[in-house]
Amino acid sequence: MGTFIQLVIDGLSSGSIYAALALAIVLVNQATGLINFAQGGMAVLSAYIAWQLTAWSVPLLLAILISIAASFVIGAIVERFLIRKFEGGDPDTAVVVTIGLLTLITGICAWIWSYNNKLFPSLFPLETISIAGAVVSVRSIGTILAIVAIMVLLQLLFLGTKLGLALRAVAINPQSAAFSGMPVGRLLMVGWGLAASLGAVAGALVAPQLTLTPNMMDSALVYALAAVIIGGLTSPIGVVIAAWLIGVLENLAAVYVPLIGHDLKIAVPFIMIFVVLIVRPQGLFGRKAVVRV
Amino acid sequence: MSTATAVMRKPWVRWAVIAIVVVLAIVLPLVLPEFANTTLARIGVFAVAVLGLNVVMGYTGQVSLGQIFFLGLGAYVTAYGVQQDWNIVLVFVLACLIPAVVGLLVALAAARLGGLAIAMVTIALPIVGVPLAKRLSEFTGGSQGLSARFTAAPEWTGLYDDQWQLYIVLLIAGISFLLTRNLVRGKYGRAFAIVKGNEAVAGSMGISPYRYKVLAFTVASLLGGVSGFLYMVVIQYTSPETLSFGHSITLLASMVIGGAGSILGSLLGGAYYVLTPQLTNLIDPGLTAVLQGAILLIVLFVLPGGLVSLPRLFRRRRGREQGGGAAAAKAAASATAVPSTSAPDGADVTTHPPTESEERRQDT
Amino acid sequence: MTLLELTDVTAFYGPVQVLDTVSLSVPEGGAVGILGANGAGKTTTLRAISGTVRAGGSIVFDGKDIRGLRPDQIAQLGIAHVPEGRGTLGDLTVRENLRVGAYTRKDRKNIAGDIDYCLELFPQLKERITSNASALSGGEQQMLAVARAFMAKPRLLLLDEASLGLAPSTAKTVYDSIKRLRAESGIAMVVVEQNANLAFTLVESATVLETGRNVLTGSSAELKGMDEIRRAYLGG
What we know:
- The complex is a heterotrimer.
- By secondary structure, chain A is mostly helical.
- Chain A has helices spanning 2-32, 39-55, 60-83, 91-113, 138-160, 162-172, 174-179, 184-210, 218-231, 236-256, 267-279, and strands at 128-131, 134-137.
- Chain A has one domain.
- Chain A is built from eleven helices and two strands, in the order H-H-H-H-E-E-H-H-H-H-H-H-H.
- Chain A has a two-stranded antiparallel sheet with strand order 1-2.
- In chain A, a hairpin with a 2-residue loop joins strand 1 (128-131) and strand 2.
- Chain B is an all-alpha fold.
- Chain B has a domain at 37-244.
- In chain B, 71% of the residues lie in helices and 1% in strands.
- In chain B, strands 1-2 form a two-stranded antiparallel ribbon.
- In chain B, helix 3 crosses helix 12 (245-258) and helix 5 packs antiparallel against helix 11.
- Chain C has one domain (2-88, 153-234): Rossmann fold, CATH 3.40.50.
- Chain C has helices at 42-50, 71-77, 94-101, 108-121, 123-127, 138-151, 168-185, 196-200, 220-224, 227-234; strands spanning 2-13, 16-27, 31-36, 55-61, 64-65, 79-82, 156-160, 188-192, 205-210, 213-219.
- The longest helix of chain C is centred in the C-terminal third of the chain and has 18 residues, at 168-185.
- Chains A and B meet through helix 4, helix 7, helix 8, helix 9 and helix 11 of A and helix 6, helix 12 and helix 14 of B.
């Protein structure tokens, strides 16, 4: 039983990282209508910025906050100067643009900081506590709580503030939003900036465990995309639940299903995608697509 | 019409060009140094792989991030068959068929899904493929991989190995390109294009998008298998790393840079795949990824049709200078006439024909 | 006092010319109609005013040349465009749609009061205040679109085909509400309508467009009985 609880909690913890990335992907998709394959790469860049600051003796929490702010700016600039041209066009072309962006960002990280693993200090103490006979790391609990806090903050932003209302309006119908005086371009930049900030949080939370390398979030991206498909592109809560589910199930499968084991546990999200999409093509929580010819 | 195009249309010119190409294909391997032959052979290998990707992505518009998986599968089948001493023709047939069958099965399951889901399924192939290749070590040699040398030049030819290998690649790649060219120029190609343009319209025309997506994906997998066989011909070693996801991305970038939806573009893409790492390593190995990402982005911004569209770009520029108002207008106008005006800073000024409300619902 | 003046406005969709020297004049607090058959350029004229379409010629609002400004900048100057198809934000509730309308306003205290006013003006919206806008009927969505535009407290309202797709009684109800809105707030309006009779209940003057040109301009009284109006619609 102890193992089971451990696996579940660790699964929720890694699932939370996927969830943060997935939320960023959903945010970008709702605002600008495309899937950003570079979301993980941007998160890695944010983590490197934070790491570099700590290497310059900046306190960890401050370094992370600065990297969050820097990521916001980077995200906004990327939207304005790189992505803007491809919005509203063929989404597949936009995907290839983000893939190019991913290659570029990974290359820049490798060029500046090399491929060697870097140790990233942990926000949470490296202790464990005992829950119902299981040994659970404080880091896992902290990660889960961090994501829950982020979700609550995002809900507050989107449902309670004028900015959140504007972001939602622009995502639904940019031209109509402009008629009410909303500066659409600027709001799209904010959307991307927010998504990049989310990624920065995810990067900072996962880097201590994985050690920092340019390709650190490549597999997290795959899990995040799986969560987006399973949860449904239109439902932020749905993708978080899907991400947690993926994290927990892959851990359980790795231990309890020998056929899968640890090396093939990456197959779990794809199996889940297959199963879910057969039953509900729009994802567990999504809405059916309306396609105008 | 420029003089170049006019000249090319004369049948005798086309025959002459073909004859020259054939002569070159026969003569060049004999005179070029070994390094050049090996490089050309490798270009041939990846040109076929890019060609396959083009069929499903360039022509039919379905994002595939898994083409490298079929190359790897073909290579593994070849390596295994050679190690088991099977007849080489049988090995070649299997290297084509097995990936094609796998591709067919994957496509049958995935082709009904929306855009992102298809992309994810294709991502699954290399990502699950690598640990799977490590796991099935009986067949694949595990992490060590398999090597298979079967392309030593036979005695009676008097050729060096690299020349022999290049001939094999030229022959097989040439046939593959020819067959594919006929496929995409014929009615299947037209069907692909319609499915790419608008699936709902395709359906209403009696062209089943599902069927043609499956067909395109199967052809792509088959070509992937062929390129895998050729991979073993030239490189003679395969391992799980052969089908890694990173290579899949580079393959995709090569297709875009060479020219999506173009036969010649596939060739250019193969050349890009092979030559660029060599070039960037000369400049600064650390900069390879940066340069590759930058080149892809630059091409997407400035030359979306890929390198193969450069002549078209020059022709249009020249046309515009010669007061080609008519040509420019023709280029700008289309049935729906929605030009995206390059708006001033941050502006979202678009011109729309008067239609009903634009509801943009984004879902998979 | 002229609030809006269009002079010789032209507009193109790609190579196709849709507006060819269109002129229009709206006095402060006045209501002017744009009539004409399908494809005459009525909607495009409104789009030229609100900045959605690039236009040539002269468009002067409150003494300021507004050509080349972005739509959101023009909205902030006090022009509210209720587009064809209404542009309601379907995934937002009725109340949220109204709040969106008030986006540019700085006087937050009065916004709640204005929302109440809108709900009193359009009682059907009051019942559906927490529903998603996409769940509303056509007529209710039209009312919501007009109310949302009003929430910005604009000086000029651009109404595009407010009766489109509505049953005649519903269209009349909508127009009655708009009339009352105008009477109580003094907003100027440009009203694009295919239903000329309905338009004449609201506007004092109108211009008739045909293939992007003014072919007839005058007061509602003059135009109402004219044969040309009938011909423009029925192609006599």
